[in-house]
Specification:
- It comes from Pararcticibacter amylolyticus.
- One of its GO terms (cellular component) is cytosol.
- GO terms for molecular function: oxidoreductase activity.
- InterPro entries: Cys_rich_dom.
- This is Fe-S oxidoreductase.
- By secondary structure, this protein is α/β, with parallel strands linked by helices.
- It has two domains: 112 residues, no CATH class; 126 residues, Rossmann fold (3-Layer(aba) Sandwich).
- 47% of the residues lie in helices and 13% in strands.
- The chain has 13 helices and ten strands.
- The strands form three sheets. The chain has a four-stranded parallel beta sheet with strand order 2-1-3-4, sandwiched between helices. Strands 8-6-9-10 form a four-stranded parallel beta sheet. A two-stranded parallel sheet has the order 5-7.
- α12 links the parallel β9 and β10.
- α11 packs across α12.
- It is globular and about 50 Å long.
């Protein structure tokens, strides 16, 4: 298979190490990866702010950049969910519709498509897993705690393959961090309080690192941790899995 690597704009600008880790991890797992250089924003910020009519250029560029690949993989659950549900094209409507089903967040690609069973990995730290809302409720990466159903977590499924890691148990396993894209701008006080509560849960239960599949959530919590002068760090799950495979 050939995979088109989609690196969302905020990952490219603020957390390039997560994008590099995603590329390296996929290549180490035997995947042929191509990075289309003309790619840009998926259009989610405009759509979430009520300006979906302005996302046409982003959609057309995405379709043109990624239509030739077997799969598209990105280290961002929120961007992937937006593309799965809203990608469209006036020039290539049929191509866009088919492409929506071939876009995958990294964790679901590793578990559902590659069906990774062994990583021969090591990360000897206490880690808290943040289940972002888009990944949890949109992509179904984990079971929602309010449902009476067998629990599962695709991120934890991968992390359990890592030797030496200790996944801490949180008091509220799938509570929102409060980021919410533009929500953190228009409802700053509520967003900050939610973030502080989410960070406190991890700290209270002994986390050295907070990981997840959405760097937007991790970025929000990292800002709070820095203001609190905490030693707890945030790290994208790709960085843990890639570092481990490299060893």
């Amino acid at each position: 298979m050939t995979v088109g690597l989609f690196i969302p704009c905020y990952v490219d600008q603020f957390y390039p190490q997560a994008g590099i880790a995603t590329l390296q991890l996929l290549e180490k797992l035997g995947v042929e990866v191509v990075y289309p250089p003309r790619q840009t924003c998926c259009g989610q910020p405009m759509a979430n702010s009520g300006f979906s009519h302005l996302t046409g250029g982003c959609d057309e560029l995405f379709v043109e950049s990624f239509k030739a690949f077997d799969y598209v993989v990105a280290p961002s659950g929120s961007c992937v969910l937006h593309l799965k549900e809203h990608l469209h094209s006036e020039k290539y409507p049929v191509v866009a519709e088919k492409l929506r089903s071939r876009v995958f967040e990294l964790v679901e690609f590793l578990t559902d498509i590659l069906k990774v069973k062994d990583l021969k990995a090591r990360f000897p730290h206490k880690v808290g897993v943040h289940q972002s809302c888009h990944g949890l409720r949109g992509l179904h990466l984990s079971q929602m705690s309010e449902l009476v159903a067998p629990p599962f977590s695709k991120p934890e499924q991968l992390l359990h393959m890592v030797d030496g890691i200790e996944l801490i148990k949180l008091d509220r396993a799938d509570e929102c961090c409060g980021f919410g894209g533009t929500f953190c701008v228009f409802e700053e006080a509520v967003s900050a309080k939610m973030g502080k509560d989410r960070v406190s849960d991890h700290m209270r239960n002994g986390a050295e690192y907070i990981t997840g599949a959405d760097l937007s959530c991790l970025m929000h919590m990292e800002g709070i941790l820095r203001r609190q002068k905490s030693n707890v760090k945030v790290i994208h799950i790709a960085e843990i899995l890639n570092q481990a495979v490299a060893e």
